């Protein structure tokens, strides 16, 4: 199976191609630069490098969120438009599931996260099993300290992986103590090859038209509007 | 389809419309599909950028497919993909730009970046072939500009708003008198039924300037209503709408006529969503007739945001060989030149 995988859910930009299910190439940067400018040149360059044409693809995999709204939209728009134009399925993979792959050989639970501002994180809970990384608890947006307290109660070692580790390291060590295992800076970066590999194994595929990001959070204006409607109903 | 025909796909997502069109030879619309989000934004009293971006992602491939199906063409027949690169809401623009880049790459076609205002101007080219030199009055929810053109693809902005766009002023005044969003069409309708009994200020700015300013007028309307209320007086909405519209139109038409004279053009175009305003159409038609100027006003469907206009403007760039590369980006404040 030939696969293109795209991840722009954080500052990390990742593009990877599998040929016949085997990694052919990847491009990954961790820079505070504009995905909108850089993604398509990276995709074109990688296709040239691995000597493949878009029409040879069987499916396109993309990190569907959570993450930066704009970042996720750039990846998803690119993936679904290519998928539609080529008449191929598009497979959305949780960015948390993608990041959790970095703990494949960890014996314990894995808590990947992205910073979501105001003390919140996008996170989820995963575990490495013989048949792959299994999701133990749904992806969510939550206050990080409460999440860590709940993990502490489970009493198991927790691998924390995140490109936003710097901002959260102190809190993690404070809340989890010896249970906290913090990966290296390299473990913290989501891998587009891992993304491709997950996407290859998924049976649930969607057509481009049906596919949109999984933001895990309403737009602020919509959340406020729903609050207002609720208040009005109470009166 | 003859060998020499040019077929351009246009994509437009700069605000709250997801639009895709296929245009032949820059003038013949084969399809022009517009999916408006206005029903979703009405509850917020205006366009919410994040929500606009979300809707664009949901809709973009659906609308591309609809436009291709309606035009009954394949990508093999298409010459290039043109897309609005700005100005507009950056998050919204990014969806169209990235969709266009992905599409161009997947079907191996060249990419063209189009300025949104150039698109509005070229809506007129679909109606009546452009001849030069010409002057365009661009009026919409986001823009108020006078643009001079000596030839295809060459734009000189000789005047623009220094604060609110004219459509914005309409919406704000409409909100003040309790009309629903978007207020422009409501004000236009009420204005036709009332007399301009209140004299609101005309913002001519310094002599010789073709710039516009509408924030003072908007404040004047609000203050006048406030003061009247305190004195126990009141005007009808029809009177307020007619008085406000009279001020706006006098300045828009006056500056357009002044610029047309100075630039010695024989041709004037009206463009943008506010070009749907009946009062403005009538006043500009009358003024152009008096001065012997040829005036073009697109039909409503081509005045509001659409992608046929983007494909039409893109066709000019295609002919001139002005392509974009994979690094094309969305720009909220793109200059017209």
Give the SSE map.
The complex is a heterodimer of chains A (235) and B (337).
Chain A: E1 3-7, E2 12-19, E3 22-30, H1 35-50, E4 59-63, H2 69-86, E5 90-93, H3 95-100, E6 109-115, E7 120-129, E8 132-143, H4 144-154, E9 158-161, H5 165-176, E10 180-182, H6 192-201, H7 220-234
Parallel strand pairs in A: 1-4, 4-5, 6-9, 9-10
Antiparallel strand pairs in A: 1-2, 2-3, 6-7, 7-8
Helix pairs in contact in A: 1-2, 4-5
Chain B: E1 7-12, E2 17-24, E3 28-36, H1 38-41, H2 49-71, E4 80-86, H3 90-107, E5 111-115, H4 116-127, E6 134-139, E7 144-149, E8 156-160, H5 166-176, H6 184-193, H7 215-230, H8 237-263, E9 267-271, H9 278-291, E10 294-296, H10 300-303, H11 308-319
Parallel strand pairs in B: 1-4, 4-5, 6-9, 9-10
Antiparallel strand pairs in B: 1-2, 2-3, 6-7, 7-8
Helix pairs in contact in B: 2-3, 4-11, 5-7, 5-8, 6-8, 8-9
Keywords:
A: 235 residues, Nucleotidyltransferase, domain 5, 5-stranded mixed β-sheet, 7 helices, 10 strands, B: 337 residues, alpha/beta, 11 helices, 18% strand, globular, tRNA processing (chain B), cytoplasm (chain B), transferase (chain B), acyltransferase (chain B), tRNA N6-adenosine threonylcarbamoyltransferase (chain B)
């Amino acid at each position: 199976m030939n696969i293109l995988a795209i991840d722009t859910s954080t500052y990390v930009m990742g593009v990877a191609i599998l040929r016949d299910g085997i990694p052919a190439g990847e491009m990954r940067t961790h820079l505070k630069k504009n995905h909108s400018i850089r993604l398509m040149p990276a995709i074109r360059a990688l296709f040239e490098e691995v000597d493949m044409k878009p029409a040879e693809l069987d499916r396109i995999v993309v990190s569907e969120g959570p993450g930066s709204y704009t970042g996720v939209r750039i990846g998803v728009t690119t993936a679904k438009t290519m998928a539609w134009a080529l008449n191929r399925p598009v497979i959305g993979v949780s960015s948390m599931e993608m990041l959790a792959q970095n703990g494949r050989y960890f014996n314990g639970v894995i808590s990947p996260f992205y910073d979501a501002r105001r003390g919140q994180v996008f996170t989820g809970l995963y575990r490495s099993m013989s048949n792959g990384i299994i999701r133990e608890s749904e992806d969510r947006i939550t206050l990080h300290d409460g999440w860590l307290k709940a993990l502490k109660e489970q009493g198991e070692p927790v691998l924390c992986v995140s490109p936003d580790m710097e901002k959260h390291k102190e809190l993690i060590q404070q809340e989890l103590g010896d249970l906290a295992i913090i990966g290296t800076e390299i473990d913290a970066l989501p891998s587009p090859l891992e993304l491709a590999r997950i996407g290859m194994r998924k049976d649930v595929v969607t057509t481009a038209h049906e596919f949109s990001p999984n933001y895990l959070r309403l737009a602020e204006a919509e959340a406020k509007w729903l609050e207002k409607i609720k208040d009005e109903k109470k009166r | 389809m003859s060998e020499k025909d040019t077929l351009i796909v246009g994509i437009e997502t700069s605000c709250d419309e997801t639009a895709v069109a296929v245009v032949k030879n820059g003038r013949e619309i084969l399809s022009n599909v517009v999916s408006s989000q206005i029903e979703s934004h009405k509850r917020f009293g205006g366009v919410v950028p994040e929500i606009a971006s979300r809707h664009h992602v949901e809709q973009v491939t659906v609308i591309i497919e609809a436009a291709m199906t309606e035009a009954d063409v394949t990508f093999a027949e298409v010459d290039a993909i043109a897309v609005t690169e700005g100005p507009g809401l950056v998050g919204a623009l990014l969806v169209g730009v990235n969709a266009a880049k992905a599409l161009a790459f997947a079907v191996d076609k060249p990419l063209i970046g189009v300025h949104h205002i150039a698109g509005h101007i070229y809506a007129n080219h679909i109606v009546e072939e452009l001849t030069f030199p010409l002057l365009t009055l661009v009026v919409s929810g986001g823009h108020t500009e006078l643009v001079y053109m000596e030839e295809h693809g060459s734009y000189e902005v000789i005047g623009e708003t220094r604060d609110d766009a004219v459509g914005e002023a309409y919406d704000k005044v409409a909100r003040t008198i309790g009309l629903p969003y978007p207020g422009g069409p409501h004000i236009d309708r009420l204005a036709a039924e009332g007399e301009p009994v209140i004299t609101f200020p005309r913002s001519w700015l310094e002599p010789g300037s073709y710039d516009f300013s509408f924030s003072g007028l908007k404040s004047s309307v609000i203050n006048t209503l406030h003061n009247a209320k305190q004195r126990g007086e009141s005007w009808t909405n029809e009177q307020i709408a007619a008085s406000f519209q009279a001020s706006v139109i006098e300045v828009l038409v006056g500056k357009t006529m002044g610029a047309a004279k100075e630039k010695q053009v024989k041709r004037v175009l009206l463009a943008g969503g506010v070009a749907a305003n009946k009062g403005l159409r009538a006043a500009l038609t009358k003024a152009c007739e008096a001065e012997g100027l040829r005036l073009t006003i697109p039909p409503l469907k081509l005045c509001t945001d659409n992608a046929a206009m983007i494909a039409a403007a893109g066709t000019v760039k295609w002919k001139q060989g002005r392509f974009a590369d994979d690094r094309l980006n969305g720009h909220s404040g793109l200059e017209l030149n």
